[in-house]
Write a structure and sequence with these properties.
The structure holds two protein chains of two kinds. By secondary structure, chain A is mostly helical. Chain A has two domains: 274 residues, no CATH class; 194 residues, no CATH class. Chain A is built from 20 helices and four strands. Chain A has a four-stranded mixed sheet with strand order 2-1-3-4, with helices on both faces. The two termini of chain A are 22 Å apart. Chain B has nine helices and 13 strands. Chain B is of the alpha/beta class. The two termini of chain B are 36 Å apart. In chain B, the strands form three sheets. Chain B has a six-stranded mixed sheet with strand order 5-6-7-3-8-9, sandwiched between helices. Chain B has a four-stranded antiparallel sheet with strand order 11-12-10-13, covered by helices on one side. In chain B, strand 11 and strand 12 form a beta hairpin. Classes of the chains: A mainly alpha, B alpha/beta.
Chain lengths: 492, 305
């Protein structure tokens, strides 16, 4: 008996594995993983903008602005270096980049600059993690100060509107790149607060903030000095700013962490749903082929209907598991053997799924989920002479199956553990999806065991009742009505 | 031992009785014909012998045992409605069915190749079924039934849909299997094939047995027909139940179509004529065809599809 089941399963497996759609489905995830870093590199939004500075004042405002932009760039460098060091568990000693923080206050950035900036940090990184360091690069500056042509810098500000037009919106023939911003500081800046800014688009908020800080500083300093405040006092007053201590709870409760922990379980739910639909479709097609081309009678002379049914189920489950195993292997490879966007995304998401209990639950609900839905597809195939026939059964089944599962995934991602999710957990048709999706955010063991047991009983009932429909439909012609299907289910 | 023994079998589908109190037996080594029109119960009976269907009453014995897949290794079956896996090669298809019948992988492959060579398809062994011609696919279907060298070959309407070349091939295979000692049971409603091949027959109508026996025994159920050329009417001769003049007499000699009572022999009539001085210039005995027998016993068969 087992021999026939295995023979039928192997034939089913080979037939599906020979189809182009199987290979396309199988390879879609590895290809996505391979292409994502390339695509993100190619289509990465260009944040780089150019700034032309015209300083007619004698206050050193232009120089102060350039220094501020440079300071912010160092802050970005420090943040990237510290994050890389923390992810790779590097020892930074007492350097400024020894702690991964959400925000680096000015004194820490000043310390980093005083310690030599990126050069010593990069040297330490390369010494401690030479391989990982190959994939690390410093963030590129978002703003670049371009030289101001003499013809422009010598013009009075009132004449700049016309003169700057070719720089802000150069003609195609000129072959020149547009300048994003032109900032003109008039000679009397300080006595009056106005500076002029030309932009070829909406100015970015961070650009405006970086621009405003040094100019505000100069205006305040000038104002305090003109009101008799000594310069050191005025300087000190300007440095006063709140030290905002940012705290993020390490464990449960953080929205971001909850999202990260939910992503992989929800992805597993999606993978289960997709692989089920795909392999179910393949099995459906092969069963319809066997029925419509009158193959079944010859097979049934050698193998019983039960052997035939189990063999086909086994073949389909094997196909599904190969797909899932391939995808999981790709995911693990991407997480632990590569560095980049995908690895950064998967590694923290794997955290809640590493316990033996979680792994056992994942395997159990994947397998039972497959068995439960594959049986439905198989019986639909056995009742249909064509794909058109099958659509009549398939469309309502897919709607019933997919709609709640898609809603469930949305609910889990939104961080809500509503009554809807709990109810769905106990409806066998949705149990595998609900349990898998909830693994990240936490589901009581008693619910896992209980709903798993209910699911098992449901599958046993499916085997008995749908098995009857399957056996009765194999050699009969035409599509049975719902009433007939009901009668067949009850008939022993 | 009987290869197949059916005793009082009944099979109903809802209110419709497909097979009713059917009993017959097929001896080992014989070629047995299952004759009947569409809906006579041939396919249902064969499916019950193969355990694809279960009877509602009665019993069936196949090769001395109850029907079941345990016999698969000894049985070859060619269903009426035949199909093949379109994406499989001819060779893989035959090997697959061989394995399903309990053959080892190596044996199934060897025998599959040998059959393909024998059927002139050696060059197409690795060709996908959907790229074979219809005639080639028919040969592959036949090979799936023969791959395990069955002791019992069950063929359901095997000639339907076959081109003339493949009909000849199938007849040769049936005779070859019988020569090798296999029992062959085939259903048909084409009488010519049965007439050429069958040693014994079962005639079915509406699920019931109408006749079981040899072709000669079947003929004996019909009145014997003769053509006599005589000067006088043979109507009064002993055993004659009808005599009809045919055509116009030539120099006083008239052709007569004569029917004898069932069981009367042509030799007895000839002896009587000779002894009694009944002048005869011609005496021709007509052998009844299976078609005539079928029409006599069952009624007109339907035309083959």
């Amino acid at each position: 008996m087992m021999r026939n089941i295995l023979l039928i399963a192997a034939r089913e497996f080979r037939q599906i594995a020979r189809t182009k759609s199987f290979w396309l489905t199988l390879l879609i995830l590895p290809i996505t993983f391979a292409l994502t870093p390339l695509i993100t590199r190619v289509i990465k939004p260009d944040f780089h903008q150019t700034v032309m500075l015209i300083d007619h004042s004698s206050t050193g405002a232009g120089k102060a602005i350039m220094q501020r932009f440079d300071f912010e760039q160092r802050r970005a460098e420090l943040s990237a270096i510290a994050a890389f060091a923390a992810d790779n568990k590097l020892d930074a000693g007492h350097a400024g980049w020894s702690h991964k923080l959400d925000w680096y206050p000015d004194p820490l950035v000043a310390q980093y600059i005083a310690e030599g900036g990126a050069a010593p940090a990069l040297k330490a990184i390369r010494a401690q993690a030479p391989k990982a360091a190959q994939g690390f690069s410093l963030p590129q500056p978002n703003y670049e100060f371009v030289p101001t042509p003499a013809a422009v810098s010598e013009l009075p500000i009132a004449a700049l509107d016309k003169a700057l037009a070719p720089y802000l919106h150069p003609s195609r023939e000129s072959g020149r790149k547009a300048v994003d911003y032109v900032l003109a500081i008039p000679a009397d800046f300080g006595a009056q607060p106005t500076v002029r800014l030309w932009s070829n688009g909406q100015p970015r908020a961070d650009f405006m903030a970086m621009l405003q800080a040094p100019l505000t500083h100069m205006l305040r300093a000038g104002f305090l000095a003109s009101n008799g405040v000594a310069q050191p006092v005025a300087e000190a007053a300007d440095q006063l700013q709140p030290a905002i201590a940012i705290t993020r709870p390490k464990e449960v409760g953080g929205r971001e962490k909850l999202l990260v922990q939910s992503i992989l379980p929800v992805a597993m739910t999606y993978i289960l749903l997709m692989s089920l639909i795909m392999s179910g479709q393949w099995m459906l097609q092969s069963t319809i082929e066997e029925r419509s081309s009158k193959l079944i009678e010859a097979v049934l002379a050698c193998a019983s209907p039960d052997e035939f049914m189990r063999g086909k189920l086994l073949g389909t489950i094997a196909i599904g598991l190969v797909m899932i195993a391939t995808w999981v292997a790709c995911g693990l490879f991407a997480a632990f053997a590569t560095h980049g966007v995908i690895a950064d995304f998967i590694r923290p998401a794997l955290e809640p799924l590493q316990s033996p209990g979680s792994i056992a639950a994942i395997l159990y609900f994947f397998l039972t989920g497959y068995l439960m839905v594959a049986l439905i597809f198989l019986v639909i195939g056995a009742m249909s002479d064509s794909m058109q026939d099958a659509q009549g059964f398939l469309v309502p089944v897919m709607l019933v199956l997919m709609f709640p599962v898609i809603v469930l995934m949305q609910v889990i991602i939104s961080g809500s553990n509503s009554i809807f999710v709990e109810v769905l957990t106990w409806i066998p048709l949705f149990t595998p999806f609900a349990v898998l999706a909830r693994l990240g955010t936490g589901i009581p063991t008693v619910e896992i065991v209980g709903s798993g047991a209910v699911l098992l009983v449901f599958i046993a009932l499916e085997f008995v009742m749908l098995g009857r429909v399957f056996r009765a439909s194999l050699l009969s012609g035409g599509r049975p009505s719902l009433k007939t299907i009901g009668q067949l289910m009850r008939r022993a | 031992m009987d290869a197949l023994e059916v005793k009082g079998v009944v099979k109903r589908f809802g209110d419709f009785t497909a097979v009713n109190e059917l009993s017959f037996s097929v001896k080992s080594g014989e070629v047995f014909g299952f004759l009947g029109g569409n809906g006579a119960g041939k396919t249902t009976t064969l499916r019950m012998a193969l355990d694809i269907l279960r009877p509602d009453a009665g019993s069936i014995s196949v090769l001395g045992k109850e029907p079941g897949r345990g016999h698969a290794a000894e049985i070859g079956f060619l269903p009426e409605e035949r199909g093949l896996y379109r994406a499989m090669t001819a060779f893989d298809t035959i090997a697959y069915f061989g394995q399903l019948k309990g053959m080892g992988t190596g044996d199934a492959r060897r025998e599959g190749l040998a059959l393909l060579d024998r059927f002139g398809l050696g060059a197409q062994a690795r060709t996908r079924v959907d790229r074979l011609s219809k005639g080639m696919a028919q040969k592959v279907q036949l090979a799936t039934a023969l791959v395990n060298k069955p002791r019992l070959l069950i063929l359901d309407e095997p000639f339907s849909g076959l081109d003339p070349l493949n009909q000849g091939l199938l007849e040769d295979e049936i005779l070859g299997a019988a020569r090798a000692g296999a029992t062959v049971i085939f259903s048909t409603h084409v009488m010519q094939h049965a007439e050429r091949l069958c040693q014994r027959l079962l005639l079915l109508a509406r699920g019931e047995k109408r006749f079981e026996g040899t072709q000669d025994e079947a003929r004996a159920t019909l009145p014997l027909r003769l053509t006599l050329t005589a000067r006088n009417s043979p109507a009064k001769l002993p055993g004659v139940i009808a005599a009809e003049a045919r055509g116009t007499p030539t120099e006083g000699w008239q052709d007569w179509d004569v029917k004898l009572e069932p069981g009367r022999s042509a030799g007895d009539l000839l002896e009587h004529c000779t002894g009694q001085g009944f002048a005869l210039r011609g005496f021709e005995q007509h052998r009844a065809s299976l078609h005539d027998i079928f029409v006599h016993i069952v009624g007109a068969p339907e035309e083959p599809k």
